[in-house]
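queue> pop job 88
queue> type: inverse folding (structure -> sequence)
queue> payload:
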């Protein structure tokens, strides 16, 4: 390009001295990455008693929900079938029609969740606590279904409430962590829901599928999660930060 560079080999050799040499193998690269890892952001989330209490509770809320959903999905077919539920003709059309209805009716739930969080005297905590508890209530109600349409109706309401719950949960969670540590807080809660989700599937593998107890445990977990939300010390509505 007609330009002259003043860079010489000697300039490059300065960075190849033995005391600054960095290995290029996998072990050396991993070591360099791990040197940057520390627990400062984790410790910050437990810096004070109130903050530690809040962090622990919100992790428990996510863990309860992560355990409850898979338990319900794994064991509800047995419970419904043992009560003589009639699932129609079981055709592909009915299956996908019901799935579409359930999905569509879940959309307004997320929108309503976005409205409720800004309502005075309800806020994030109120919307989350009520929607989580009602998710558990309608989960219990779905166990009474004796027909395909009844099960569809309860499942629609259950999915509607769970969409409100998730809409508020995903918005509220990062707001109750200090801003600089919010990413770490989200990572902890996401880890909690995934770890307990895995445990739920382990239970489904090794437990007796011919029992309805896990379905009722799932409902109780949702109710418990709703109660834990009420005990959270922070309400983030109308606040820019903690």
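queue> result:
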């Amino acid at each position: 390009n007609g330009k002259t560079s003043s860079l010489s080999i000697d300039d490059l050799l300065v960075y190849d001295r033995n005391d600054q040499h960095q290995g290029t193998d996998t072990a050396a690269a991993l070591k360099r990455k791990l040197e940057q890892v520390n627990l400062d952001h984790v410790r910050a989330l437990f810096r004070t008693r109130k903050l530690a209490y809040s962090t622990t509770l919100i992790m428990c809320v996510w863990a309860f929900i992560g355990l409850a959903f898979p338990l319900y999905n794994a064991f509800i077919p047995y419970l419904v079938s043992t009560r003589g539920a009639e699932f129609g003709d079981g055709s592909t059309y009915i299956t996908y029609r019901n799935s579409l209805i359930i999905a569509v009716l879940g959309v307004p739930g997320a929108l309503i969740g976005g409205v409720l969080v800004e309502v005075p005297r309800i806020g994030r905590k109120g919307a989350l606590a009520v929607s989580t508890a009602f998710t558990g209530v309608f989960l219990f109600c779905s166990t009474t279904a004796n027909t395909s349409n009844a099960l569809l109706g309860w499942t629609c309401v259950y999915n509607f409430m769970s969409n409100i719950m998730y809409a508020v949960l995903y918005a509220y969670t990062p707001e109750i962590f200090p801003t600089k540590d919010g990413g770490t807080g989200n990572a902890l809660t996401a880890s909690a829901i995934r770890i307990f989700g895995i445990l739920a599937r382990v239970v489904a593998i090794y437990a007796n599928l011919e029992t309805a107890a896990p379905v009722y445990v799932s409902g109780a977990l949702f109710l418990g999660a709703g109660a834990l939300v009420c005990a959270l010390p922070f309400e983030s509505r109308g606040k820019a930060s903690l």
